[in-house]
Amino acid sequence: MDEFPDTVAGQRTAGMAYAYPPQSYRTIRHLSLCPIGRRLLLLFGGLAIAGMLQAQEVPYRLEAGLPLYLQHYAPQDYGQFPQNWAIVQDRRGVIYVGNVDGVLEFDGVRWRLLRTITNTIVRSLDVDTIGRLYVGAQGDFGYFWPDSLGRLRYTSLVSAIADSTDRKFWDVWATRVTPEGVYFQTHARLFRWDGDTMRVWRSRTYFHTAFAVRGRFYVRQDSIGLQTVVGDSLRLVPGGERFAHRRIYAMMPYDADRILVVTREAGLWLYDGRTFQHLPSEVEPLLRTYPLYHGTAMPGGFFALATLGGGVFIIDREGRIVQVIDEAVGLPDSWVNYVYVDRQGSLWMALNSRGLARADAVPYLSVWDKRLGLDGFMYGLHSNGKKLLAATSTGLFVMESQGARPHFRKIRDVNEQAFKIVEAGGELLIGAGNGVWVLQGWRMVQYLDIGLTYDLVPIIDSLVFAGGTKGLALLQKRGGGRWHVALQNIGRLVGEVLRIVRSGRTLWLSLRNGQVVRMQFLDGWLQEPEVTVYGQADGLPGGFVQMAELDNTVLFFSREGVFRFVPGAQPAFQRDTTLLAPGHEGHDELLALLVDRFRRVWTIFPTHVDIAYPLPNGGYRFETPLVLRYPDWGAPVQIYVDNAGIVWLGTRDRLIRYDPRLPFPEEAFSPEPPPVLLRWVSAGDHVLFGGGFVGTDGVIRGQQEDGQELVVPYA
Question: 427-432 and 435-440: which strand pairing?
Fold first, then answer.
């Protein structure tokens, strides 16, 4: 922290103006409350809040995309100085930020500035178990706590320092809450407040950084090493002398017993309380280029490392880089002073010159869009075992990740919208807007002019059926390795063929007009089939019908649900609810259905995904993954599960990747909507509640005069 270029930290730029957002509130004229005599009973719940790196410098190993969400809070949003230093969340879910102007309070809707007595830069923050907010500022430290009406009031603790010479300090770089008290770390002094008395330690050189891990306090003293407090004495931890000249900027829980120690010069170390073991990592050389400044543990066994110039590196337990959040992906400032994970699992970033940012930076759930080269409406996905391909409204894209940030590259030879990708005869066939393209090694080697082609179904390596605006065609690969149109307008269908599914010697076709066609090729694929056309009179819903194959049975589905073909029945297509999770039948429109190679059936709805797992004795076990609830993603239009089990959900303009192999912290996700947080309550000019804590029972009582309106801003 002593190395940070702080020359502009407390200086305002001349002519810089900041807009203060107006306060938002509602006047409630009719409010249902629980009266107790003449008192007013209000119940409260918690609030759920919700230098650019060169691509080739980052040695990715996992193909995670970008954070699902990345939101920037600019200085104009919160109305104060651009530079921020610390972030913490209280038990209600309210976010507090250490800013040059004081403490920013954010309830998810409104920003408010809390000032200390000295009105100086706030460098550090922490919250104890009862919600008291501790503050470390320049020349001051103390805490915020609500008064009897719930209004936050600041109390300085400097007066509790007995020796006046110890009061002459400047920046409080770390504020750490521990069971034995709250530590405030400056370069010259270390203070501990236990609620009654102040203990002071004077540095022999200078205190550099301080941390609290699992309730134990650690401090690095320059030229001495990593120390802890034993009784009232500072003592080196076993092996701590190795950090006498190696600067530590992060200490985080690694597993049940060990701590991950991250240095600027010497990489990552694991500490078990007795010894330190070096952890080789991909990020180590990058931390020499982009100096480490802070770090935090993340849900699922990941770690976020904030750097000066390189943004935030997210690594896994093996030290592999799984994600980078920097200016290339939309972070407005790659100089990050602090990182913090809130109760909902979102990563907050305190930026050096551009405000704040919040990202859903969970590597098991990430997004691919234009920023990573993928453009257009998603029509189809395919993996050739090595690379993922995407067919979109703007063309064909292939994922490339070797030695660089994973990204999609457009195949320039396919200059039409692409709908379907299949492999046959050692080549890729692409159903496109003007026909079928044949690719070898990402280069177009042949083009078949059969009109717009929506679907392709290989029968054998040399036979592929194609459906599109000109009906059904059969493509055949003959001698010389060239593809030819063997049959056209098979069955003389009226209407565009949108989908094709094979079941034995039968093809099922879905037409744009809502009809379904059964073609039975009893005499061979090159012979004319027996054709039967089905419509609404046969039990079909009437709109576009999609299809999937499960255990040699074709499933027919539309937004109205799932249907099966029952020969001899009246009607022939019967509604089937066995693949829908109990309670979800008819609850929401069905957008897509997929049967993966594990015979799991995925049903996609506008707000969630259900998975049906086949049971050995028949029937299904259902699961609705919390992580795949997407109220703000945009409804998926495509789903694909690759051979590794990774789930790809295609929306209208992006691709979402879910890796179920990575640890998923269910405690960070809740299907329930967040409770309301009341910010203050007033009746006339009389404040009944000022927005702070209200006690362990969540109840506050106050007088309300007859005829007065209650003003209740909320978040």
Answer: antiparallel
